Amino acid sequence: MASGVDFDGSEAKGEMWDLEQKLDQPMDEEAVRLKNMYREKKFSTLLLLRLAFQSLGVVYGDLGTSPLYVFYNTFPDGVDDTEDIIGALSLIIYSLTLIPLLKYVFIVCKATDNGQGGTFALYSLLCRHAKVRTIPNQHKTDEELTTYSRNTVHELSFAAKTKAWLEANAFRKTALLMLVLVGTCMVIGDGILTPAISVLSASGGISLDHPKMSNDVVVIVAVIILVGLFSMQHYGTDRVGWLFAPVVLLWFLFIGGIGIYNIYNYDSSVLKAFSPLYIYRYFRNGKKKGWTSLGGIMLSITGTEALFADLGHFPVSAVQLAFTIVVFPCLLLAYSGQAAYLMQNHDHVVDAFYRSIPASIYWPVFIIATLAAIVASQATISATFSIIKQAHALGCFPRVKVLHTSKTFLGQIYIPDMNWILMVLCIAVTAGFQDKSQIGNAYGTAVVVVMLVTTLLMTLIMLLVWHCHWLLVVLFTLLSLVVECTYFSAVLFKINQGGWVPLVIAAAFLLIMYVWHYGTLKRYEFEMHSKVSLAWILGLGPSLGLVRVPGIGLVYTELASGVPHIFSHFITNLPAIHSVVVFVCVKYLPVYTVPEDERFLVKRIGPKNFHMFRCIARYGYKDLHKKDDDFENKLFANLFTFVRLEAMMDRCSDSDEYSLCGGTMQSRENGETSALNLDFTVSSADSIVPAMYGNATHASSGRESGQTEGYELQFMRSCRDAGVVHILGNTVVIARRESRFYKKIAIDYIYTFLRKICRENSVIFNVPHESLLNVGQVFFV
């Protein structure tokens, strides 16, 4: 089937065998090319099918468990008219067709950041194509990264005008960031509500055979499952992840098969719902009640945002294949089957899914349903961890502990602090409401807001990144907003019935994220305005006016250019400084990853006899620091390579023995492979000037350059052996006296509190306590 051949026929198998035998015989160059093309196509097709199968367990768990609770949330007060069931089914069918299928699977999923999906991936794309980042710490060299892909626009195009409009006003940049943060906070809300409603709905099946069982028992079972689920998060999904896809595939086959059984046995007339005429009749008959029931209908497309957020694990084609072949038809059959059952059993709408299961397979389906709910919850929790990591990388979330849960897949992470916060909130929602209807109302509110945010961001993506004609952009935006705003208006009617929960959760996280970003931005602006000029450094002389003691001082700073204020504060209060000073800037870029061979950028500050350098370590929002000495070793390997190659460039500028390809050089230093971008310039706060030696004798000849190279390397190695000290700024940020009261509350109370409870920079950078030197300073913002 993968190659367009019927594998069920023996004749076709024989033809395939003959073809493979012929391809294995000696052949000319053209035949070899055809053979490679054939095998590559066969391999890629089989690989695509395998990835499509695996994507079921990661991407579609949340969307697949929606049949557990949709009809109950649509008709919480029971079914009044049989035609209402057909109308509701028609709405479900066209909701699944318009939103997950057409909008997300075939349009939004193409707007990936090198395969990465989600709200922050869209924001990163926009940051690369327009200067909309609120923290302007990017440099032209960052645009040379292989993962920093972007398109240019014609100056007179509509995209160029939109770009200029966005960049012209700081308020618009902040508004765009707020939009992204709102979507992010709602995704975090999904991470709380998805486990609550999925596990509670699945657990409800145990009460079907025991009508007298109290609802409290079902809630207790759900809470126990949730506690177990969150408690196992630190193990990760690497060991049990292979089970997810078979479980979800079995789930889809079960609900699809049960749907066919119910349509055949109960009422096949529900297939009339494929006619949109019944949507009109549904609203005409139901009026306001029918309109507000859209909040329940919308639950049929929950999980669509998780589909986009988890896209980084699989290629778009695999996700599209899985949805069109398995997910979409099975969901249509499942909802049609439940509708057929309800046509003759109006009173069973509360447990429509479980009551429509044939008695002979009830308990196997119950077990698979519970497992599918756990898989769906796991995928949402993992997506929440991932988006919090991305928010932290872009300076929008306090520093938290991030752990790898897999040695193979670095994208699988675990955030302990957030895990327990999510667990407490999830249990509180489950035990507090004890009702699928109110939790469903809350869930629907979170989902529809995320969809609206995605639509608005996609509008900018289509203009600035895809360069679509503005008519196409208007058409996409209007159609999406009409559908989603319709759902949003229905959800607003249920704010007092549980819909307030995600709004409160989102408001709390939005306050935390925006205040943290605001404080980070003000700190960066203060450091930019108070950085030290190169002239001041040169005026101090090679000794910097101090005693240069053996060792290397690593001064951590957020500045990618210039000498930070912390350094001047340090040398004006202490009588000594290390023989070698390296300003280390760890910064995150709006790319999903920075390749290892492009991570470090090394520059020299001042003359050579000052022994001062800058090393910029660049990371993407998916990258993580490893908890070992790897970072420090690579930093010194790149630094030593820079010193050696700098002298080689002076001595062997016409030699073919050494070469630079695109400003990048590969080398080995003490067994450590290093790759760095070389920039043989001296960086200052205000200018870039050519590198020069400390005195004229150093530059008198190539022979003496070689001596300088050997001396400087030997000197730096001896300094490293003498000891490495990590110098970090312990900054206190205080609002000015004349500041408005809300700024004082944000900075002096909220931001200060967040800094006290979050992890220190020394822990993030894995700095040994005995090698740490904190320099205190106060910033007034």
TrEMBL record:
InterPro entries: K+_transporter, K_trans_C, K_trans_N. Keywords: Ion transport, Membrane, Potassium, Potassium transport, Transmembrane, Transmembrane helix, Transport. One of its GO terms (molecular function) is potassium ion transmembrane transporter activity. The chain crosses the membrane at residues 43-65, 85-106, 175-197, 217-235, 242-264, 321-341, 361-388, 409-431, 443-465, 472-493, 499-521, 533-556, 576-594. Residues 51-537 form the K+ potassium transporter integral membrane domain. The keyword Transport applies. It is a multi-pass membrane protein. Belongs to the HAK/KUP transporter (TC 2.A.72.3) family. PANTHER family: OSMOTIC STRESS POTASSIUM TRANSPORTER, POTASSIUM TRANSPORTER 10. This is Potassium transporter. It comes from Salvia splendens.
